[in-house]
Amino acid sequence: MAITGLILIFFLLAHMYGNLKMFSGPDAFDHYAHWLKSDILYPIVPVGAFIWIFRAFLIVCIVLHMYAAWKLTVRDRAARGPDHYVATKRLAQTYSARTMRWGGVILVLFLIFHLLQFTVQAVTPGFTRGTSPFEMFVATFSAPVGFLMVPLYALWLVAVCMHVRHGVWSSLTTLGANTSPRSRSVLNAIAWIVAVLLFVGFLIAPLAVFFGWVR
């Protein structure tokens, strides 16, 4: 769970960086999107092959991550016994830690929606195979569609960043980095920095489109 979680977090950071290319204009953003789907690792792999290899890799990571979560849940419940605990005190557990399972379900549901919207192009009206990635992004977050999509996107990012904040902490702890009070403080700071960076980095481009700063 720790390893697949960190892989997915690195993917989110890379995806966020790609979204920020909106501020470089349509040519830069569309070139980046085209590069992702055609030119990466060419001629080592055929044109367009890398994106499918990468998608398959991410799907495997997500499935393994969900399987690990299910196994840990089963072990957790089995350890409590048939009568569970008489009393439960969460002395040092954050809200994000307590909602990791439901947060993961929310993330998967929105991921499906996200793929239907931008990859399958079956959600936002007006998307066609000829619509450029820049045009799709602008159409999604401009008014009037943006009045719905920007708040939904922001709420989803809250769920993502709560999941990531605890995920960074938990993953690095699982891998042996939490060895002292000082290292605990450092890990907590890293977890918050990554979560806030993702929230701001992912939300700033939709807000820029919605308010007309990017057209």
Structural description of this entry:
- 72% of the residues lie in helices and 0% in strands.
- With 215 residues, it is mostly helical.
- Helix 1 runs antiparallel to helix 7, helix 6 packs across helix 8 and helix 7 packs antiparallel against helix 8.
- The mean pLDDT is 86.
Give a count of the beta strands, DSSP E runs of length 2 or more: 0
Proportion of residues in extended strands: under 5%
Number of helices: 8
Element order, helices and strands?
Answer: HHHHHHHH
Q: Name the poorly predicted regions.
A: none
Structural class label? mainly alpha
**CA distance, first residue to last residue:** 40 Å
Averaging pLDDT over every residue, what do you get?
A: 86
Please state the CA-atom Rg, rounded to the nearest Å. 20 Å
Overall 3D form: globular
Ordered list of secondary-structure elements with their pairings:
Blueprint: H1 2-19, H2 26-39, H3 49-80, H4 95-98, H5 100-118, H6 133-141, H7 146-174, H8 181-210
Helix pairs in contact: 1-3, 1-7, 1-8, 2-3, 5-7, 6-8, 7-8
How would you summarize this macromolecular structure in one to three sentences?
With about 220 residues, the chain is mainly α. It has helices at about 1-20, 25-40, 50-80, 95-100, 100-120, 135-140, 145-175, 180-210.
